[in-house]
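TICKET: design request
STATUS: open
ATTACHED STRUCTURE:
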């Protein structure tokens, strides 16, 4: 089934500490963002990629897109202060029935997961990729444990997140009107009463966030090549 994808890539990569957008850092000699774009470029069901970029990064993206095999279906728009604002700007350029949002910083997403999400969003309105929490989770206040949280039913949420387009649009408009800032798209659609289905994803669908994630990324890349 056809879909479009918004790829937020307009961050500054503060936690990575590279002094520039982390999406231009390289895994095996190619920028991180190229791998993310490759996945959607290779999928005939992905009709349109909306890349959200930061002011100042245009020339680097222009250069990178010039050689990219998916360039005919990529358009770019400018991002905003927070990730949510960037996705909102991307939404303005979207149409069709199903829209995905996928972080530029998650280069190892599998097509299999994407297709399960698209199907689930078509059926139920909203679906997110996630993996079961592996660690013991505790809640603390001022450095003291208050509670050991039961792990049953806890999920670590990733992207892609997939929606029927009118649902995500309404959720974003309401969040904007109410000045609500969420950490993912699903939190916005949950607020308008929409149910969200979980699609179990892979632990290696990592987001490159801090410097050691680059080591993990090299290892995942090496494993995938075999
Ligand atoms: N992003 C965006 N617009 C923003 C902030 C983030 O499009 N205003 C994008 C990033 O480029 C990234 C994704 O959202 O692909 C996930 O965000 P995150 O991992 O937090 O990246 P950064 O915001 O760049 O990193 P940091 O929070 O460490 O500064
Ligand atoms: Mg950020």
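STATUS: resolved
RESOLUTION: sequence designed for all positions
ATTACHED SEQUENCE:
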């Amino acid at each position: 089934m056809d879909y479009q994808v918004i790829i937020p890539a307009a961050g500054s990569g503060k936690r990575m500490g590279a002094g520039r957008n982390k999406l231009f850092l390289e895994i095996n000699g190619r920028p991180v963002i190229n791998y993310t774009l490759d996945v959607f470029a290779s999928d005939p069901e992905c009709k349109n990629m909306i890349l959200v970029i930061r002011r100042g990064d245009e020339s680097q993206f222009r250069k990178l897109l010039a050689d990219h095999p998916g360039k005919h279906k990529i358009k770019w728009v400018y991002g905003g202060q927070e990730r949510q604002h960037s996705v909102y700007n991307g939404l303005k350029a979207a149409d069709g029935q199903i829209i995905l949002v996928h972080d530029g910083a998650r280069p190892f997403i599998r097509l299999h997961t994407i297709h399960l999400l698209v199907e689930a969003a078509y059926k139920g309105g909203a679906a997110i990729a996630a993996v079961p929490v592996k660690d013991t989770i505790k809640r603390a206040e001022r450095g003291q444990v208050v509670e050991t949280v039961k792990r049953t039913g806890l999920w670590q949420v990733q992207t892609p997140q997939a929606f029927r387009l009118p649902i995500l649009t309404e959720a974003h408009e309401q969040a904007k009107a109410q000045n609500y800032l969420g950490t993912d798209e699903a939190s916005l659609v949950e607020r308008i009463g929409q149910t969200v289905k979980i699609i179990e994803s892979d632990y290696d669908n990592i987001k490159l966030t801090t410097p050691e994630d680059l080591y993990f990324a090299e290892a995942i890349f090496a494993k995938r090549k075999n």
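CLOSING REMARK: DSSP finds seven helices and eleven strands in the chain. The chain has one domain: 3-225.
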